[in-house]
Amino acid sequence: MHAERQGHADTQGHAAALGIEQRAAELGAKPPYLGFGLGLRPQHYQDIFDTAPNVDWFEVVSENYMVPGGKPLQMLDRIRADYPIVMHGVSLSIASTAPVNMGYLRDLKALAKRSDPVFISDHLCWTGVHGVNLHDLLPVPYTREALDHVAARVHHVQEFLGQAIALENVSSYVQFSHSEMSEWEFIAELTKRTGCWLVFDVNNVFVSAFNHEFDAHEFIAGVPKERIVQFHLAGHEHNMSHIVDTHDALVCDEVWDLYRSALRHFGAVSAIIERDDHIPPLAELVAELDVARRVAAETLQNAAT
Question: d(Cα 194, Cα 21) in Å, to the nearest integer?
């Protein structure tokens, strides 16, 4: 009797695995390698048009263009005519216990239809509950209950959009004492259940590893390399006792080193320099992006020899 039950369980598990593979296939092939990109910022629109910088693609903050019309959409249309884009949101709140905001999803889908992004991404976090938006990317308790909840919401969002989304690991400053697994174990299981892609934010891993005293290389080894579609690189504020993810400075040497480790493990992955505050002239960001190109070329070449 026990053997029969075990056999039935194994069959169910195999069927579930096939279902995941089928669902992932239905949601589309893995996004292509794009090269090296920048976050699109309004202060750089004219320089982009005038100088045609050495940037392979641009990432746009989805919410900035989820509007009925006006200059932002006109600028996006012009950029999209010359460069691939990726839509990167900050308000999906995929881990919230509040109902999924269907108005937000409809606007997101409309923008995707208009701009034809290579993929759509957001953050593995929650941003509010009970009708209050806290305007922050808040961490998730890494429990089985939370995993079930987030996976169900990812399925819902992906089915509505008709494509797999990519989720980014966030930086964090507190942990939940009742977590039952590591962040990377949670992420790995979420991708297995939903077929979602991953944005691997190198800086965020570095920040969280310092703040919570875990090994960043264990994080790298713990997430499925076949699901990674993008690297994020950014600066932060080091306060000795803790690090704050500010995205307002140059990428530091330690994050470049962690980027090298990620390249050796994951291989060639599209990468972006993010700057959200103290935004310098476009030429300075392009120069930093060139550093990312050189680091990637050298690291991958050395790994191949």
Answer: 9
